Amino acid sequence: MAVTAARSARRPPWPAMAGWGLWGLGTLMFLGTAWLNQRIRQGGRADLAPVTAAETLPLLLASVSAATVGAVLVSRRPRHPVGWLLLGLGVSMITLGAASDYATYVLLAGGGPLPGARWAALYSDTGWVLWPTCIGLILLLTPTGAPPSPRWRWWVWLTAAAPLVYMLAEALQRAPMDPPFSSVVSPMALPATLPFERVLAMVDWGAALVTQVALLVAAGSLVVRFRRARGVERLQLRWVALAAVLAGVAAVGVAVGTVLGVEVLWLVSSFSYITVLPLTIGAAVLRYRLYDLDRILSRTLAWTLLTVVLALGYGAVVLLLGRLMPHGSSLAVAGATLAVAAVFQPARRRIQQVVDRRFNRHRYDAARTIQAFSGRLRQQVDLDSLSAELLAVTRQTMQPTTVSLWLRPRH
Length: 411
What we know:
By secondary structure, this protein is an all-alpha fold. It is built from 14 helices and no strands.
């Protein structure tokens, strides 16, 4: 009973209730967004709700991932700011979609004289700035919950203030909002008699620039923190390094989708990264499987490379056989499938060896040491030499603090 009371005193219940309450609110807003989208389509204005499943699913996964990990962190580490920031990121993503659909339904689709439509349109026009701000602050405060040093505190406050300044400057301008609300003016727009339009535009531009630069500065702060970190904090930051590797893959997908004009590709790439980032941040803060990260990283890279290689090989074989065989023949697809199935296991083993040699060197060296010891074991007959070599191999591969060998005496 005393232990339970002590735990309750250390961890009050209200943060967990608040965190999961916000998570539930986000769920209700998502359901409301789906209902509004359906009402817009039923009203004959499908052009105002051109959202497809390919666009909705990545956004849903990203927001659910951020909100869920944030709620878990808030319930377990209520004083850690990263949990609240992740929760805010997930809820803000859902809120932005809900505000956009609500304003569209009321102002453009004839949904009736419902209150707050112009305010919802204003938030829909400016709320995007919260996403990079939350991500920048998350990277800046991971994993300890504080910046790398006290000298970074002014930048934390500047990063947090920039989106508020941007949203206020946008709200005070008299210019119409961006499409689809080109005919809507902010309810906070200043009167035309006040000559502040150019000043507000400059403040608007500067604050938006700070929010984008904050992401780059946050990434640089991780490099500084990693070089100074030791022990457990260094292991925690390796989880964030895994997210950085996946961010590079997502950036390639965004670039390819932008160049080719395939909107679904860059949407899936960007939101997939936002889906993975909260998971790695949560693992780093909760210190989950810190010592297995090399294995997780090597497996992730190996399967990613294997997927890319097999996909490119499949496409090349289909293209080649399609030119050699009659038009419309299904043998090209069948032949490519059989070829991919035949090379799957050899390619997986080879790619895993290459990745282990580069990113999981300890496991690769340990496997080679054990393999060499197994070969010498067949030729070794002296018990003392065998015991000494077994202890040496154990120290080299397992790296224990102490090691000893006990052999049962023969009767």
